[in-house]
Each structure stands twice: as C-alpha cells, then as structure tokens.
Design goal:
Blueprint lengths: L1 E2 L2 E3 L1 H11 L26 H14 L5 H18 L5 E2 L1 H17 L12 H8 L3 E14 L4 H9 L2 H7 L6 E9 L2 E15 L6 E2 L2 E3 L2 E3 L5 E8 L5 E5 L3 E3 L8 E10 L2 E12 L1
Parallel strand pairs: 3-5, 7-14
Antiparallel strand pairs: 1-4, 2-14, 4-6, 5-6, 6-9, 8-12, 10-11, 10-13, 13-14
Helix pairs in contact: 2-4, 3-6, 4-5
Length: 279
C-alpha cells in the first residue's frame, strides 16, 4: 500500500487561507491517560487513551524480533543501493507504529494494513510521532511461520510487486519495522514514509489555549503557506497563515488532524502532521 503526495486544491487552499487571513523519544502522556495494556479488544478509542495503551503495550511486551527487524532494515537499504536510490533512515516513532500494529495483529490473529477498528498506518504515525510532517506513506505487511529467517521474511515481502515498489521508491526517506510473534506465526509490518520536515517542538496530544505551530521543511523549494486542522471526516475545523492554533477550534469530542500547507511555484501541497485533541 502506498499513499503519495497530495496536491492541495489551489483555489480552495487560497480561499481557506484568506478566510482565516525524533520524534524519536517516548512522548509525555497526560496524567489522566489510562495506560493498562489489554489487546483482547484492540487499543482503546480516543487519541489520548489510544496512545497511552500503545505505549504501555510496547513497554510490557518483549515478543518482538529485534534482530530480524534490523536485518530487514539492512536488506532494504542494500536493495535500495543496488537500485541506485538513497538509503532510508530508521525513525523510532515509525518503529513504535509498526510494532504497535504487529503486536495487535499477533494478539488478535489477523493481517491487514488497518486494525480491526479501521485505524491505518497514517493514523498510527500521526498519533505516535508528535513532530512529523510527511507527504507520502507506504507499508508492507506479511505473516509467516515463526521459524522464518530474516532472508525468508524479506523474500516474502519482496514477492509482492507493490511491496517491491515500496522497497525501492526513491521518494521515501524514513522507515520503521515491527515483527511480533504469537501462536507459531510472525507478524511483520514495515512502514515507509517521506518525511519532508518536522515541527520545531513536539505537538502535545491535548492542546489548551493557544499553541504555536513552527514547521521546518527539509527542502528549500517548499515555502510554508499555512495550516489546516480537520476532523476525522475531513471537515475543516480551523486554519490560516498565522501559525498559531487555538483549542476553541476543537470540540471536546473532536480529534483534529493537522496539515501544514506548502507551496512549490503555483502549486500547494499538504504535509500531514500530528493529531491533537482538546484538553
């Protein structure tokens, strides 16, 4: 599965803007978050509870195949070198997202890009990485016998044509891997993402009052044009050219998806950022 750079509708983008004129660390969770790990019915609903349970489950489970994860990472970059494309960075937040999904599949005995509640790879990335600004996302998922070697895992991933394209896609910059074992099976998740920038500071899960948004994009040809906050159905909650979000834009029952708008020449594109809710 691959989702590529989304071009933002320019007339709509301009009208909306006119209207409003390493991550790699474990995030600090609100004190009220419920952190018990129980995967019989999947991860909890609601952004804060979801993230709290994911982090709890990752901290208490040791059934991950870390050596195989590293071997798949190395094999992917070797294949990319042979194809003449740049190596991928391994991003800790994507590791957590991939492991969270692998663990859920292993616990409930299913395979798919979405969990049984319909949350996909992009949701996991945006929930668990509080700084990411990404334009394209891909993922490879496989289930094999528990005694499969890293070479056999990589061969199984590569056997699918869409997976092979993901492995050597020259636009991807970062990856994360999760391999969980249960009931004689290995559940493998490989995430691949084009990270085009980051927020200067991690965005809290819960916003209160006014919150500054300071994006830093990686490419000089991107010019920051503004931001939008949308609900899960894609309805716009807030946005503008001033990089400042206020919690009044989010109802207490809503979740807001942050998009940073960037321009290249006359075109406007969307970089997907973290998900937030209201305190």
């Amino acid at each position: 599965m691959t989702l590529m750079l989304q071009k933002y509708d320019v007339p709509r983008a301009l009208s909306l803007l006119a209207l409003a004129a390493a991550s790699g660390t474990i995030m600090a969770l609100p004190a009220t978050a419920q952190a018990a790990c129980s995967l019989e019915n999947g991860y909890a609903d609601g952004l804060v509870s979801y993230v709290a349970e994911v982090e709890s489950c990752l901290s208490v489970n040791s059934d991950f195949e870390a050596r195989s994860e590293t071997a798949i990472f190395d094999a992917t970059n070797s294949q990319r070198a042979r194809a003449g494309v740049a190596s991928l960075n391994r991003r800790a937040s994507l590791d957590r997202a991939a492991r969270a999904h692998a663990l859920d599949m292993a616990a409930r005995g299913y395979a798919g890009h979405d969990d049984l509640e319909g949350r996909g790879h992009i949701y996991r990335m945006r929930a668990l990485d509080r700084q990411v600004l990404a334009s394209a996302t891909g993922a490879n998922v496989a289930v094999l016998d528990a005694d499969a070697s890293p070479a056999e895992i990589y061969e199984a991933i590569s056997a699918d044509s869409a997976n092979r394209q993901n492995l050597v896609h020259d636009g991807f910059t970062d990856t994360g891997l999760g391999i969980a074992k249960a009931d004689g099976r290995l559940y493998v998740v490989q995430m691949l993402t084009t990270v085009d920038g980051e927020l200067e500071s991690p965005l809290p899960l819960q916003v209160a009052g006014a919150t500054n948004i300071t994006p830093r994009v990686n490419q000089n040809y991107f010019r920051t044009a503004g931001w939008n906050l949308s609900d899960a159905a894609g309805n716009r909650l807030a946005g503008g050219t001033m990089m400042r979000m206020h919690d009044a834009a989010i109802d207490r029952t809503d979740t807001g998806y942050l998009d940073v708008l960037v321009q290249v020449d006359a075109d406007t594109y969307v970089l997907k950022g973290p998900i937030v809710t209201r305190q």
